[in-house]
Amino acid sequence: MKRYIPLFALLALVLSACTIRIDLGVNVNEDESGTFDLFMGFDEDLRQLMEQGGGGDLDITDQLSDAPDNWTVEEVSEDGFEGVRI
Questions:
Q1: Helices and strands counted in the chain (H then E)
Q2: Which H or E run includes 29?
Q3: What backbone torsions phi and psi does residue 37 show, to the nearest 5 degrees?
Q4: Which residues pair with 42 in a beta bridge?
Q5: Beta-carbon neighbour count of residue 54 at 10 Å?
Q6: What is the pTM of this model?
Q7: Calpha distance 47→81 (Å, rounded)
Q8: Local structure of residue 60 (DSSP, 8 states)
């Protein structure tokens, strides 16, 4: 029965109206240096579903606390999504 739990969780996510938003940007300079920008956010429905399912608080910045020194990690709330920008 335990092997079916991830399947049920995935099915619940698909059948719900939850939304994950991912924005990815890459800027390359003429000297071949550049920057990489990533936003990953969850809508309120998904956050509530994850917390009810035992996922706890979705504090992504804690999980990224060991990011490289030259990275910036910030919590962002925009357009109804809460997430992180790296």
A1: 3, 4
A2: none
A3: -125, 130
A4: 20, 82
A5: 7
A6: 0.59
A7: 10
A8: H
48-57: long-range contacts, CB 8 A cutoff, minimum separation 24: 49/12, 49/13, 49/16, 49/18, 53/9, 53/12
User: Cβ-count burial of 83 within 10 angstroms (0-12 exposed, 13-18 middle, 19+ buried)?
Assistant: buried
Confidence grade of residue 68 (pLDDT, cut at 50, 70, 90): confident
Rounded Cα gap, residues 62 and 43, in angstroms: 19
For tokens 């300079």, the residue is: 29
According to DSSP, the residues that pair with 41 across neighbouring strands are: 21, 83
What are 20's strand-pairing partners?
42
What distance in Å separates the CA atoms of residue 49 and residue 43, rounded to the nearest whole number?
A: 10
Rg over alpha carbons for the chain, rounded to the nearest Å, is 16
Looking at every residue in the chain, the average pLDDT score rounds to: 77
Is residue 74 helix, strand or coil? strand
Predicted local distance difference test score (pLDDT) of residue 30: 96
